[in-house]
Amino acid sequence: MKVISNSVETTQKLAEDLAAVILPGTTILLNGELGAGKTTFTQGFARALGIKRPVKSPTFTLVREYQTDQFMLYHLDVYRLGEEGGAEDLGLSEYFNADSVALVEWSQFIQADLPQAVLVIDLARLDQGETDQREINIHAVGAQPTKILMDLEQRYGTSN
Ligand SMILES: Nc1ncnc2c1ncn2[C@@H]1O[C@H](COP(=O)(O)OP(=O)(O)O)[C@@H](O)[C@H]1O
Ligand SMILES: [Mg+2]
Questions:
Q1: Residues at CB less than 6 angstroms from ligand 1
Q2: Where are the transmembrane segments (predicted)?
Q3: How far is it between the farthest Cα atoms of the chain?
Q4: Distance between alpha carbon 61 and the CA centroid of its chain, in Å?
Q5: Cα(53)–Cα(1) distance, rounded to whole angstroms?
Q6: How far apart, in whole angstroms, are the C-alpha atoms of residue 141 and residue 53?
Q7: 1, 53, 108, 156: which one has the fewest Cβ atoms less than 10 Å from its Cβ?
């Protein structure tokens, strides 16, 4: 699925639609350079799930935890690990379980901890970063992410 977003609102609307079809046990990888919109997407996603606390990037803590009505939501930003290396044995895989939902920024730095099944969201600036335009590509690996992506496509298609 590919979406061209021209505003924060459009990116967060997509995140809201994803929140509406998400299921516990889903791990979402948010890929893209600094400023691409990974945290902005997460903010829209969390807000749609009723999170009132401000959602900030957990750069120093690695993980922030939020309780939704139905499941724990984990927001990981492991950018820091890329600089330091040695992300093994941090026990981060506990956040990727059947009962919760995790969003991960810079997941390439914890490759070994990631589950097989993931929903991958690639965000990229267009126009050399001079505008608010973003290209957002979403693909699924595994059964549950595939179902969620199909539900998202249907929902996004009918709400726009
Ligand atoms: N279409 C858009 N989608 C997402 N963010 C956008 C968009 N246009 C402008 N922005 C801005 O780009 C920045 C994205 O920052 P952030 O979400 O923290 O990126 P990341 O977490 O990928 O480093 C924010 O300042 C946001 O307001
Ligand atoms: Mg971020």
A1: 5, 7-8, 10-11, 32, 34-40, 105, 132, 134
A2: none
A3: 44
A4: 17
A5: 30
A6: 31
A7: 53
Alpha carbons 51 and 73: distance in angstroms, whole number: 9
Taken in order of first residue, the domains within the chain and their CATH numbers are 2-144 (3.40.50.300)
- Which tokens hold the place of 134? 């973003």
**Structure token digits, residue 69:** 């009505």
Are 101 and 28 in contact by the 8 Å Cβ rule? The answer is: yes
Using only C-alpha atoms, the chain has a radius of gyration, in whole angstroms, of 15
Distance of CA 115 to the CA centre of its chain: 14
At 95-131, the pLDDT tens digits run: 999 999 999 999 999 998 999 999 999 999 988 778 9
User: Could you tell me the CA-to-CA distances from 66 to 9, 51, 53, 55, 117 in Å, in that order?
Assistant: 22, 7, 8, 9, 22
Tell me the best of 4, 8, 76, 106 to mutate to test the pocket of ligand 1, counting ligand atoms within 8 Å of each CB and taking the most: 8
Residue at 111: amino acid letter: Q
Pick the ligand that lies closest to the CA of residue 132.
Answer: 1
61-101 pLDDT, tens digit each: 899 999 999 999 999 999 988 866 666 668 899 999 999 99
